[in-house]
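INFO batch 0412 | record 1 of 1 | parsing
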Amino acid sequence: MDTEKKSKNRIWQFDLLRIAACLLVLLVHVSAQWLNGAVPGSRAVLFAQACNILAFSGVSLFAMLSGALALRREMTVKEAVVKKFLHFVLLYEIWREFYFVFHVVSTGQAKDPAAWKTYVLDGFFKIQGHYHLWFLPMIAVLFLLVPLIREGAEKLPVCLMYLTAAVILGFAVPTFTELHLPGSEQIGSLAEPFPAAYFSGYLGYFLLGHVMYRWRERLKGIPMALLHTGGLVAFLLACMIATQRGTAAGEVYYGLDSPLNLFNLVTSAAIFSAIVGIGDASPVGTQRRRLRLLAALADASFGVYLLHPAVLYLLTDKHPAASVTGPGLGIPCLLFILYGISLLVSSILLKVPLLRRLVS
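INFO prediction complete | emitting tokens
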């Protein structure tokens, strides 16, 4: 009965967004297996880089989803600090130590006291967490801002005021500068007093997710079609630019493999809009089996995100994926296997009361 009641309170599009964002984050690290040391120009490298560019939308979607959820209702200071900020900070420290231990054991240093001291003891103060854990402190800070910005977030003109400045100075100017487009030096100089950090690109995504869900009715019809077309065009342009620049330089171009550029912003907004739009048009909300499946996969997604680098290392350390097969077959297969194993482990941890807090 409790489960049924909980399911009724869920927004199933958000579950679908969690799953999509999770798969895209995994795709970042899977596709990178075929890009390390690759020489641009072949269709195989083009496919791998297209996957990698698209995959960075996963980080953006997680931030947008967090904003859409957090800004829907009032959040007290206590809830923001204790239930959100401190929770994510604590998770960061726990998983940071987990990956220190994993590194010592997986690299054959388990019997070396010096390695334990360097990574597990001294590392607590001197070494940053595993490469994927940066998301936890970032989202912790965003939740800390919720009580501060919640009232303004309910006013569309206020949201648009901030988003306009954030898009121009936090996304467009850095993208123009990175691509060295005509006039980018002058634009960059004019925008120099307003660096992207001032506008916190991820706060932009956080607020954008709220705006796109809260006022989604305004995005129907022609605006939605234009956004979806723009997302596809932005993705294709990013792939084309990366291929041209990589071919000219003789090495893979990573300048657009990031959530904080204009191409990713438009692509991520289009994906978010498409998934939310599916929910408004589809009758899946009445199909309980599908709801339960989506809920289970969504609940396990955070654990999948936390666990997948360890699983990926165990899968590819001895036999790098790129040495086994090409990206056309290898990327979807490795993604499926990586997701399946990480999902299984995450689902098991969710069943253990003492451990479920670590992956939820």
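INFO post-check: The chain has one domain: 2-356.
INFO record closed
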